């Protein structure tokens, strides 16, 4: 069987929107949020408001409208949350793609599919409202996850409901409902979801990284931002 990352890359031929509105490929800027970014040392990362200002200034200085990045990125910013920063978990490597745009931006499905599951993951530092879609392309099943949504996004959604490519499926939440983050979408691709519903790890520990990277390839292979 074809390698999953190659398969995912083959599904789209160019930039594929997951954020609604008039965003074009040229409107995005890559941002490094790893421990190598010295600018983060000056920031009070425990404050979602301060982080929003940091993102806004980053985009304004580059004359861009959206920031993206974070796949396979070692981040120290998770130290603020006991969900990740504890002896048992010790998770700090991000395996999704983050896209930083304003709260209540429309979220689109990049492919045809159906609603697999949804859940409000309410822990501090968690996804907040989350939707998982199931896709079948060339007889191969896989999943996409959308985290940090608004609670309104979960009000009328139904498991099994069909979704078309480019269709609005949700909107981003603000920090009061999205796990206490500056507004952004966590987008992740997964070949196997096992028994998970409305949730799947997006931050993992080093010991588990290789297995997760095989199951969760770089989402930008699909979006091509």
TrEMBL record:
GO terms for molecular function: metalloendopeptidase activity. The keyword Signal applies. SUPFAM superfamilies: Duplicated hybrid motif (SSF51261). Residues 93-192 form the M23ase beta-sheet core domain. Gene3D superfamilies: Glucose Permease (Domain IIA). Keywords: Signal. It holds the Pfam family Peptidase_M23. This is Peptidoglycan DD-metalloendopeptidase family protein. It comes from Christiangramia lutea.
């Amino acid at each position: 069987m074809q390698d999953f990352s190659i398969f995912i890359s083959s599904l789209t031929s160019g930039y594929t929107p997951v954020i609604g509105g008039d965003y074009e490929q040229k409107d995005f800027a890559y941002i490094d949020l790893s421990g190598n970014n010295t600018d983060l040392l000056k920031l009070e990362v425990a404050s979602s408001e301060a982080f929003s200002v940091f993102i806004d200034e980053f985009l304004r200085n580059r004359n861009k409208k959206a920031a993206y990045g974070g796949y396979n990125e070692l981040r120290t910013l998770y130290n603020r949350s006991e969900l990740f920063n504890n002896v048992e978990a010790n998770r700090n490597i991000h395996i999704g793609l983050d896209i930083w745009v304003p709260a209540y931006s429309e979220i689109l499905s990049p492919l045809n599919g159906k609603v697999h599951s949804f859940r409000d993951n309410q822990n501090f530092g968690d996804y907040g409202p989350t939707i998982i879609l199931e896709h079948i392309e060339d007889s191969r099943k896989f999943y996409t996850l959308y985290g940090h949504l608004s609670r309104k996004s979960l009000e009328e959604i139904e498991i099994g409901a069909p979704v078309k490519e480019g269709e609005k499926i949700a909107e981003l939440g603000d920090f009061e409902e999205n796990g206490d983050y500056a507004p952004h979408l966590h987008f992740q691709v997964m070949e196997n979801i096992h028994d998970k519903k409305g949730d799947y790890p997006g931050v993992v520990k080093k010991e588990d990284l290789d297995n997760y990277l095989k199951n969760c390839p770089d989402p930008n292979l699909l979006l091509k931002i």
